[in-house]
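Morning, I've got a small favour to ask if you have a moment. I'm working through a protein record and want to make sense of it properly. The fold is given in discrete form, as structure tokens running alongside the sequence. Can you walk me through what the tokens say about the fold? Thanks so much in advance, here it is:
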Amino acid sequence: MPNWLLPENIADVLPSEARKIEELRRLMLDNFRLYGYELVMPPLLEYLESLLTGAGEDTDLRTFKLVDQLSGRMLGLRADMTIQVARIDAHLLNRASVTRLCYAGSVLHTRPSGLHSTREPLQIGAEIYGHAGLEADAEIQELALASLALAGFTEVRLDLTHVGVLRAIIEGDAAAAKDEASLYLLLRAKDVPGLQALTEKYSPVVRDALLALPNLYGDVEVLKRAREVLPDLPGIAKALAELAALAASAINRAEVAIDLADLRGYQYESGAMFALYVPGLPNAVARGGRYDHVGEAFGRARPATGFSLDLRELARLLPTAERKHSIRAPWGNAPELKEKIAELRKSGEVVIQSLPGHSNELDEFECDRALVLDDNGSNWILKNLG
């Protein structure tokens, strides 16, 4: 096997693609700052028990694990930065007021999340801590939609769901509550035969409600159908009202869909959840939602909601960036040449000095001008290249 091969679903990012990713990162982080979000940088690895605190089984399975040669304890390479940022809010910042945090960094997965997905996503996201009201959920949803708009996506579908619906349905049935994890998996897969078999001994009301969930998807009219077919329980009424409000806040910004069985992230989410889809990608390009109980494991329960997306996956959907016009300059130490090059770079021009005996082979830059001496040999001027 050639020694330059990389592991499956791990790849180098070449210049033109790297520039797209970096420009997206800068655009989004700058926009987060305009909303008042503060940047944090969690470490790439942590002690395993801290990294997986409050996370679901999915995160555990996706996490690379290794032994720390200094302490002998198990370490994990982060598969998701959300828990790390929750730890920073709860344990390090420890503020009493609302805190807005954002982040960007690589994460590693033991297995790819999709057929062509990388195992090294570049995750970027934003989180709000300290406010339990729907206003925080609406702001996060708005920020996620704004992020895709900054990337140039005009056709976006927003899928909404709420974990409160399932939890309210099974709350009064001990058998159903015991099977919560299995119900989550069956609903996520929309496995109706599996649901029928599992729910045979549940109370009729609970069973009928669970079997209705896989069919409660579509446009916002689904919420009306849900009120008709689901039990009249306070938890369900609250969840449906929150979904209606979030759907209304996205009007004219995205196509809105409701799917009450799409429960990805159910294991640590606690309220409304959303997923964003764009043309060209079958999987969600961004996911977000409320997770109020994660901070408890760090000694401080805080209301929390946020979203994240993979910049590498997003950049893959964008057209190749046009090469930037630049200036070719000769190599030399003459003060006049150095001064002219510095002046051009200060004004924002890209100036590439040709090293002796080499031509320039560039993916990102197109040298359409050259820095040359004038006819008198006294001044450096720009000459257009045909």
